[in-house]
């Protein structure tokens, strides 16, 4: 891997696109400059949402088993690039290499697991209380999903947002944490190497204002966010006027304090 900072681009409508501004991403241990990551403009976000909206109807028309095959293809790409992806996570997030590799492999396994749901998405036929009447229940996609990610499990949570959305016929716009965006762009690079239809998966980076725009947009049918209670509260407030469906996973747990006299070999 080169020591020169990488310049990343947003992934919109199946293409990598430059942004006018960038965020510098540093190694938290050495403070070495790792990358220039997109600081997306409002028009960048609109472009991603419009691309997702255009792609959604065609994506939803595909049989679920066909959508599943795309998840399997992406999972295979991840397994072919475990070392590179794990190193990217370690450098920008600080996770030790062994755990970073576990995260990448678990992400691939999760994509394959969600692909299996293609056979489990079923409707229902319910007998009615009325004579000669039955009730048919169909499961329909929501539309466009916005996935907003935290810094601590930046790679796995791409799949946690993306895979359930895609297997059920939705399209998605992912906004990575501005502290750990590099792995998300590496994920997008591998997605681009598959034949996933343009606009189904999009990535726009930037600060909290990008998440704010996604949360307030009438183009978004559901928001899935993992992160702090404070940010979750702001997302809920921004989404409330549109009655946007929310999935919020808020708050941290299990902090670890390493004391100076500990046995370091057990603390890593």
Please outline the helices and strands.
Blueprint (H helix, E strand, L loop, with lengths): L5 E2 L2 E3 L2 E3 L3 E6 L6 E7 L2 H20 L2 H17 L1 H12 L3 H19 L8 E4 L6 E4 L6 E5 L7 H12 L3 E5 L6 H11 L8 E3 L4 H9 L5 E6 L1 H11 L5 E6 L13 H4 L1
Parallel strand pairs: 1-5, 8-9, 8-11, 9-10, 11-12
Antiparallel strand pairs: 2-3, 4-5, 6-7
Helix pairs in contact: 2-4, 3-4, 3-6, 4-5, 7-8
GO molecular function: lactaldehyde dehydrogenase (NAD+) activity; succinate-semialdehyde dehydrogenase (NAD+) activity
Keywords: Oxidoreductase
EC number: 1.2.1.22
Helix/strand/pairing category: alpha/beta
From the structure provided, what is the oligomeric state, counting identical versus distinct chains? single chain
CATH superfamily: Aldehyde Dehydrogenase, Chain A, domain 1
The number of distinct β-strands equals 12
Please mark out the parts with pLDDT under 50 across 5 or more consecutive residues, or reply none. none
Number of helix segments? 9
Our count of domains comes out at: 1
User: Judging by the overall fold, what is the CATH architecture?
Assistant: 3-Layer(aba) Sandwich
* Percent strand: 15-25%
- Major beta sheet summary: 5 strands, parallel
How would you spell out the order of helices and strands? Answer: EEEEEHHHHEEEHEHEHEHEH
How big is the Rg?
A: 20 Å
- CATH class label: Alpha Beta
């Amino acid at each position: 891997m080169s020591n020169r900072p990488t310049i990343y681009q947003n992934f919109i409508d199946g293409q990598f696109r430059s942004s006018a501004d960038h965020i510098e991403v540093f190694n938290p241990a050495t403070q070495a400059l790792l990358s220039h990551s997109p600081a997306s403009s409002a028009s960048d976000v609109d472009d991603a949402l419009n691309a997702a909206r255009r792609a959604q109807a065609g994506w939803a028309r595909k049989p679920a088993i066909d959508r599943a095959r795309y998840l399997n293809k992406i999972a295979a790409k991840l397994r072919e690039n475990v070392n590179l992806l794990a190193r990217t996570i370690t450098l920008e997030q600080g996770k030790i290499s062994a755990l970073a590799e576990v995260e990448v492999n678990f992400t691939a396994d999760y994509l394959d697991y969600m692909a299996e749901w293609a056979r489990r998405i079923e409707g229902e036929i319910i007998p009615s209380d009325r004579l000669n009447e039955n009730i048919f229940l169909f499961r329909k996609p929501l539309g466009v999903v916005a996935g907003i990610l935290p810094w601590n499990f930046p790679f796995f949570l791409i799949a946690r947002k993306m895979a359930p959305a895609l297997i059920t016929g939705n399209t998605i716009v992912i906004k990575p944490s501005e502290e750990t965006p590099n792995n998300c762009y590496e994920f997008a690079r591998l997605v681009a190497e598959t034949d996933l239809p343009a606009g189904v998966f999009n990535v726009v980076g930037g600060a909290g204002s990008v998440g704010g725009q996604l949360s307030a947009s009438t183009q978004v049918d559901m928001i899935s966010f993992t992160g702090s209670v404070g940010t979750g509260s702001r997302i809920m407030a921004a989404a409330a006027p549109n009655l946007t469906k929310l999935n919020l996973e808020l708050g941290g747990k299990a902090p670890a304090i390493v004391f100076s006299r500990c046995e370091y070999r057990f603390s890593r």
